[in-house]
Specification:
2 helices, about 70 residues, single chain, 4 strands
């Protein structure tokens, strides 16, 4: 997982947008900071994106995440 994502996890995440079309995740923290993280279009990027989505689904309540299909 990206160091950027771990850094934001230290603050409270207000909302998460998971964009499957662009293989990216946009995070909104409690202090208003927005961060978009993108993964490469290769095997390693696919694995990293899938792992991160799984982690988000396990830790972020459903009402605080949105899926873009």
């Amino acid at each position: 997982m990206s160091e950027e994502l771990w850094g934001l996890m230290e603050t409270y995440l207000e909302y998460v947008w998971i964009d499957f079309i662009h293989r990216s995740i946009k995070l909104l923290s409690d202090d208003g900071h927005e961060e978009t993280i993108k993964w490469k279009w290769d095997k390693e990027g696919a694995e990293g994106f899938a792992e991160t989505v799984s982690m988000i689904q396990e830790t972020i309540e459903p009402e605080r995440r949105h899926y873009i299909l």
